[in-house]
Amino acid sequence: MAGEARREAVSCMNHWTCSSRIHLRPRYLKDVSEVDTKTMIQGAEVSAPICIAPTGFHCLAWPDGELSTARAAQAANICYITSTYSTCSLEDIVTAAPKGLRWFQLYMQTNRQLNQLLVQRVEALGFQALVITVDVPMLGNRRHDLRNQLDLKSNLLLKDLRSHKGQINPMPVLQMSPIDSSFSWSDLSWVQSITQLPIILKGILTKEDAELAVKHNVQGIIVSNHGGRQLDEVLPSIDALTEVVAAVKGKIEVYVDGGIRTGNDVLKALALGAKCVFLGRPILWGLACKGEHGVEEVLNIIKNEFRTSMALTGMAMSTLHRGESVLHRAIVGRLRNL
C-alpha cells in the first residue's frame, strides 16, 4: 500500500508543483498604469495568454457541456481547444459560439478515413488550428479511474466519432474507435496533405521531439504531460518548457498546459518562453459549479491575477501584443536543489 500511495502522489504532483521553486524578480518605478494583456497566437488575437485546453465529456460536469464552455471562451475572447471526446457535436458548438476562436484537438484513430473526415469537417466549420495529441499512444495506468470505478455510461455519446461511411449516428463512448498506437513522425506528412490548418503537437516534453517537430514543419507545440495522468514520474510541464523553447529557437510557437492555477503561474510560464497557457481542470471545476458563468469566473479570476502580477513585476505587457518575447527569462530566477 505504501508503494501504491507513493505512485499516486507522484502522479498527482507531476504536473506543476515545481512552480513553487520558481521565483519572480520584480522591477519597480515602471509605468504600469495601463497593463495590456492581449497577445497573438497563430496569427489571431486573444484578450490574454490564458486559453482553454482540450478536455472531454463536459456534459458530465454541466448539462450543456461544451456549449457552455464555448460560450464562455467567446465572451472572454480567448481560444478554446475542442476535444475529440466532446459530448456535444462540433456543429452545435460552433452554433453556440459562432464568433469564438476555435482549435480542434485530435486523437488519431486507427480508422484513417475517420481521421480525414474529422479534419475536413472542422476545417469546413471554421476551426483555425489542428491540435494532435501525441502522448497517448495508449492509455496510461489511471489508478484513480480504477479506484473510483469510473463508468462512462453507454448513453453518453461522442457525437463527433462517426463510422468510416460518414453515418450521422453518434457513437457510444464504449464503442468508440481505438487510438492509433502506430501513429509516428512519418505520418505527419499525410495529415498535412489533407488540411491547410496549422498543426500543433500537444504532449512534447523533450528537446529531441521539439527539434523533430520543427523539422516536420508543424506550427506549434503544447508542452504538456497530460496533467500527470499518463506516465508516472514524468517531468512537470514547467520543467520541460525551457528545454523545448530553447530547442525550437523561435521558429514555432510554444505553449504550455498542466497545473496552472494562478496568475503568477501564467506569468512564470510566459517568462520561461511560453506564448500562451492552456487551462484544463480549473475550467471543468468552474463548469461543474456554475456552467458557463462558472467558466467565465475562473477565467476572470486568473486574468485579473495575471494583470496584477504583471503590474507588480513592472511589466506593462504591450510588448506581448506586438509578439515580442521580452519576458523570456527576464523576471524569473530558479532556486536549485529545493
Automatic annotation (TrEMBL):
Family label: Belongs to the FMN-dependent alpha-hydroxy acid dehydrogenase family.
Name of the molecule in the record: 2-Hydroxyacid oxidase 2 isoform X5
Cofactor names: FMN
Domain FMN hydroxy acid dehydrogenase residues, every copy: 1-331
Signal peptide: none
Keywords per UniProt: Oxidoreductase
A Pfam family annotated for this UniProt entry: FMN_dh
Coiled-coil features, chain-numbered ranges: none
Reactions the enzyme catalyzes: a (2S)-2-hydroxycarboxylate + O2 = a 2-oxocarboxylate + H2O2; 2-hydroxyoctanoate + O2 = 2-oxooctanoate + H2O2
Top-level taxon: Eukaryota
Keyword Protein biosynthesis recorded: no
Listed InterPro entries: Aldolase_TIM (IPR013785), Alpha-hydoxy_acid_DH_FMN (IPR012133), FMN-dep_DH (IPR000262), FMN_HAD (IPR037396), FMN_hydac_DH_AS (IPR008259)
Keyword Metal-binding: no
CDD domains assigned to the protein according to its UniProt record, in alphabetical order: alpha_hydroxyacid_oxid_FMN
